[in-house]
Design goal:
By secondary structure, this protein is an alpha/beta fold. It contains 20 helices and ten strands. It binds adenosine-5'-triphosphate and magnesium ion (MG). The site of adenosine-5'-triphosphate (ATP) has 14 residues, from helix 11.
């Protein structure tokens, strides 16, 4: 199997064949070979039993015509036994295929989920969450339906076709005439039907992904929608997309309605009766044989009717397999580098002629600096200057396009990704909290932390006090996306989370928080506590923070225009002086470029 780059890896996940949707589905199927075998055997016995009933009804008929006799009893017994067998094997068939389908759904969902965790930030930055979700739910479930009932019906109806054909041939070979003609018509119409249905099926699923992506986005941004009074506009947009989705279903309905094999079946059934009666008239077969033949031919009704439905679900399932596999097979840029350096970080960081851009356009240009272990570094610059981007290169969220980022003198690419990232803590500009308890949010990344450690971290982060003032204290569940806490509170929880993991390098993106002076004092204290004994990068607009930094990096439009201490920069950097000249005296509220 080809190796796929990935940032994360689960040891015991099975290697499935990902060459094509068909290979992939088959390799999932082959994980439980006994289930499909059981299904086929059960279906075989089931259909033979059913055919047998038809044959013995014919035979009984002949027996009755010959006059009353005891010979009828064994015939009836065979019919009863066949009926019981048919019932039992039907049960086994359905049970095995249902188990198979549920397991495959579970396996595929697991594989898909793992593959999402493996992907780089560049990948996730481009994807719409709702679309990924629809693949995880709707499409994965379509795989389930493809097996049960889809595949089961195909196997069952194939056997419900083959076994009666053999039985008819054994009754009298010339009886095969009408069934064969019927088969030819059926195959052609099915192929045609399939060809027309496939594009509609695929478009339907794409549209479903789009719809759920839109719903997700609107719900995430509901505050923005409301404050801009865009409800009506968004509703109309949604309805028009929903209409497109509906139209695909109507199109599918029209294709299904034009399904004329049922008509072909009805005609053939009539023709087969005429043919059977004709053969009886010529004395080639008995009347009972004609009845048995008609009973057998009737099983084709099931085949004809069900092929419509089963083709549909299999088609749908394969389209879904394609959509899931598309994501699984997307290459990502980074890999976890299992063989890479794995050791405790001292804390020196060096940027060596680093260039970086997201989609071609350069965001960082020729960045050079060297930071000693334990230093506190302030990064300043106007909005969009590239401050956040620069720090993202330190923990390898992205790799530079040119140049290298070295941690302890070792290229970040040569570090074991897990070892590197687990020692670098990030407090984002927009702190994300999970809808879990505050305790769990703080212990995220350190599940084994004790109650005491969590409390200590919260105290250092100046968060303990406000947490205790909440109704449930540390057990308070944070609302979705952390909306029940203020920006300053979320930031302090993030600081506590970072402190608990005791990172060697701490990165704090503090540039947007505008807060009152009391909270600011607390956050200052928290940050000071956090930056002790480790290399710390602070992106900030606060003068007090900038002042006590050991080194200040001044960024302007992606370029590092100056670096040094506050005093040095006031001396030599026009740009730095400009930044401060526009600040009010005394307290600092923010800078503008
Ligand atoms: N994921 C992304 N994809 C494409 N471009 C991006 C992405 N993130 C940022 N950019 C662009 O890169 C440039 C630098 O962004 P960055 O977030 O690093 O700025 P910043 O200095 O942190 O700004 P701010 O102070 O507003 O947070 C901006 O022009 C921005 O448009
Ligand atoms: Mg930023």
């Amino acid at each position: 199997m080809e190796t796929v780059l990935r940032e994360f890896h689960v040891e015991d996940i099975r290697p499935y064949n990902r060459k094509s949707p068909l290979h992939w589905v088959l390799s999932h199927l082959m994980r439980y070979p006994h289930l499909p075998i059981l299904m086929v055997v059960a279906s075989l016995v089931n259909n033979t039993a059913y055919g047998n009933i038809q044959l013995y009804i014919g035979k009984s008929f002949d027996q009755v015509l010959r006059g009353p006799s005891g010979a009828l009893v064994p015939l009836v017994l065979v019919i009863v036994a066949s009926a019981v067998l048919q019932g039992l094997t039907g049960l086994v068939r359905n049970y095995s295929v249902e188990t198979l389908a549920q397991r495959i759904e579970r396996d595929c969902r697991e594989e898909y989920y793992v593959s999402l965790l493996e992907k780089s930030q560049t990948f996730h930055g481009k994807q719409r969450v709702g679309d990924l979700m629809s693949r995880a739910t709707y499409d994965v479930h379509a795989l389930n339906l493809m097996f049960s009932p889809g595949l089961m019906l195909i196997v069952d109806s194939s056997l419900a076709y083959a076994i009666p054909m053999i039985m008819i041939a054994r009754l009298h070979t010339s009886l095969l005439l009408v069934p064969i003609l019927f088969t030819i018509v059926l195959v052609f119409t099915l192929l045609d039907y399939n060809r027309r249905l496939e594009p509609v099926s695929l478009a339907q699923q794409e549209q479903n992904g789009k719809l759920s992506a839109e719903t997700e986005e609107i719900l995430s941004g509901i505050l923005t929608v409301k404050s801009n009074v865009q409800e009506k506009y968004e509703l109309e947009k949604f309805l028009s997309d929903a209409r497109v989705f509906r139209d695909y279903f109507i199109q599918q309905g029209i294709i299904q309605a034009r399904y004329w094999p049922m008509l072909a079946f009805a005609l053939s059934w009539g023709m087969s009766l005429l043919h059977g009666l004709y053969l009886w008239k010529t004395g080639a077969i008995s009347l009972g044989t004609v009845i048995g033949f008609m009973g057998l031919f009737n099983t084709f009704r099931f085949v004809t009717y069900i092929s419509l439905f089963s083709f549909n679900t299999v088609q749908h399932g394969m389209a879904s397999a394609k959509r899931i596999l598309e994501i699984i097979n997307t290459q990502t840029e980074l890999d976890q580098n299992l063989q890479g350096t794995r050791k405790k970080i001292e804390g020196s960081v060096e940027f060596d002629t680093v260039f970086f851009g997201y989609n071609g356009a350069l965001v960082l240009k020729r960045i050079n600096f060297f930071i000693q272990p334990g230093m506190t570094v302030a990064i300043v610059g106007g909005t969009g200057a590239g401050k956040t981007t620069l720090t993202r290169l330190i923990n390898r969220t992205f790799d530079p396009v040119v140049g290298s980022v070295k941690i302890d003198g070792i290229d970040a690419k040569d570090w074991n990704l897990e070892s590197l990232r687990s020692q670098i803590a990030f407090i984002e500009q927009d702190v994300f909290l999970f809808s879990r308890t505050i305790r769990e949010n703080i212990a995220f990344g350190r599940e084994d932390a004790t109650e005491e450690e969590i409390r200590q971290a919260a105290q250092l982060a100046q968060a303990h006090e406000f947490i205790c003032s909440l109704k449930d204290g540390y057990d308070t569940v944070v609302g979705d996306r952390g909306v029940t806490l203020s920006g300053g509170q979320r930031q302090r929880i993030a600081i506590a989370r970072a402190l608990l993991t005791d990172p060697r390098i701490l990165i704090l993106d503090d540039s947007t928080s505008a807060i009152d002076s009391r909270t600011e004092d607390e956050i200052q204290k928290a940050i000071r506590n956090a930056s002790r004994n480790r290399t710390t990068f602070i992106i900030t607009h606060r003068l007090s923070q900038i002042r006590w930094a050991d080194r200040i990096l001044v960024l302007k439009k992606g370029e590092l225009v100056a670096q040094g201490t506050h005093e040095e920069l006031m001396e030599v950097s026009e740009e730095y002086r400009k930044i401060f000249s526009i600040l009010p005296k005394g307290k600092v509220y923010g800078i503008h470029s």
